[in-house]
Design brief:
Length: 425
């Protein structure tokens, strides 16, 4: 009996340990912020990034006066900060212990809540796990006659990517279309949360809210809440700051590709890494990631697709092509005009200030990006990448209390952008 009890106890310990050993900890990791105040300092930081391809840059060096955020392990912190001191570059610690912040953000999760019922809206007081999001999405057609589900594709791990198609009085395909997606980078939890907020308000506001009703009657709307589903699940179960997909890379121990560098538009050029261990690894070829290829193929089937928005975090930026180069597109005036309308409408809600500009100019050069492909290859005139809250106090670990305010301000921005686009086709 004692032997059986000991064996059972050992098995329990083994299961418990095997479950928890897979969860990466960021205990004593620190995020530092650097603001280069000269071109010399900027070049030093760019070289530091190039020479340390596997460092976790939350905000990369772009220009003099623009902040750089880096998440440093306890091992890297003394080495990198010594390097900065040698070059007389000042830094501040903005997050003293990343793991503590992760714990505070995930603690309010609905772990003790009951599962969603078919008649209950999604909970915006917490971040929701993928299975809860999936359950909510599946419940939509039974509740809302103006919405249906469409299968967009699948992920490497076999998850089905399901978008919600919302359409009003006019027939499908007879009016301009508008696509939104969230969570292409899996650690950016505020992105799918905000997209879900917009989805919920569009569903419940049709026939009740004048501007929402007008938008849905004027456009076919497609919403994919979680683009990088495999990665998002992984952020809950194993590594909160995981960014990439989960497909293995042949010949490397490092897993995953940056799904926002894997599109077939100037793929593999500046602003994308060839190192499989880097956060911005572009993959072995354009569209090597099954989910990226499936979404791209689906987008091409949507008649008259006029607007595309790919939501990210963080930095509070409303951006348009090009990303691969610091050049204006032929539609720059209208792309910028719609972005200005969006950020003005957004600021009117909670006085949150967003900057607008081309991707390469205001965040970084990034080849093989989503917005470049939708504009350049799929001819979607109004193509955007949007960096949601905040400016860096919490970075990718935005508290769940920010979900509703983010949604409240982003919804009117989306409506204002659509209104501009419809008037300037």
């Amino acid at each position: 009996m004692k032997l059986q009890a000991a064996t059972l106890l050992a098995a329990i310990v083994l299961v418990y340990s095997s479950h928890h050993v897979l969860a990466r900890t960021y205990e004593s990791y620190k995020v530092i912020r650097i603001t280069p105040n000269s071109d010399e300092q900027l070049q030093v930081l760019k070289k530091m990034k190039t020479d340390n391809d596997e460092l976790d840059f939350w905000k990369s060096p772009l220009s003099v006066g623009r902040v750089v955020d880096v998440n440093l392990s306890p091992q890297d912190f003394p080495r990198i900060t010594s390097f900065l001191k040698e070059h007389k570059i000042h830094y501040d610690v903005t997050i003293a212990d990343v793991q503590q912040l992760i714990h505070s953000v995930t603690r309010p999760h609905r772990a003790n809540h009951t599962r969603l019922s078919s008649s209950k809206a999604i909970d915006f007081s917490v971040y929701n796990k993928y299975e809860d999001i999936e359950e909510y999405v599946k419940s939509i057609p039974a509740q809302f006659s103006h919405a249906k589900l469409v299968e967009v594709g699948k992920t490497y791990e076999g998850r089905i990517l399901t978008a919600v198609h919302i359409s009003g009085t006019a027939g499908n395909g007879s009016k301009p279309a508008f696509w939104m997606d969230g969570g292409i980078h899996s650690r950016e939890w505020i992105s799918p949360a905000t997209v879900l907020y917009i989805l919920e308000k569009l569903l419940t506001g049709y026939g009740e809210h004048e501007e929402i009703t007008a938008l849905i009657d004027a456009m076919d709307i497609y919403i994919l809440p979680v683009f990088n589903a495999d990665g998002y699940v992984y952020t809950w179960d194993h590594d909160r700051l995981w960014r990439k997909t989960r497909e293995p890379n042949s010949g490397s121990v490092c897993v995953g590709t940056d799904p926002n560098r894997n599109w077939d538009w100037h793929w593999g050029e500046s602003g994308a890494s060839k190192n499989p261990c880097a956060e911005d690894f572009a993959g072995t070829r354009a569209f090597s990631q099954i989910s990226v290829k499936d979404v791209a193929d689906f987008l091409k089937t949507i008649p008259n697709l006029q607007i595309y928005i790919n939501f990210h975090s963080y930095s509070q930026l409303w951006m348009y092509p090009w990303a691969y180069a610091k050049e204006n597109t032929k539609d720059h005036v209208d792309q910028r005009g719609a972005a200005i309308a969006a950020v003005d409408a957004l600021r009117a809600v909670h006085r949150t200030v967003y900057e607008e500009g081309s991707i390469a100019e205001i965040i970084y050069v990034a080849s093989g990006s989503t917005a470049d492909w939708t504009y350049g290859a799929a001819d979607v005139k109004y193509s955007y990448g949007v960096e949601l809250r905040d400016k860096g106090r919490y970075g990718f670990l935005l508290p769940p209390a920010e979900i509703t305010p983010s949604g409240e301000e982003t919804l009117p921005a989306v409506i204002a952008l659509a209104d501009y686009a419809l008037k300037h086709p």
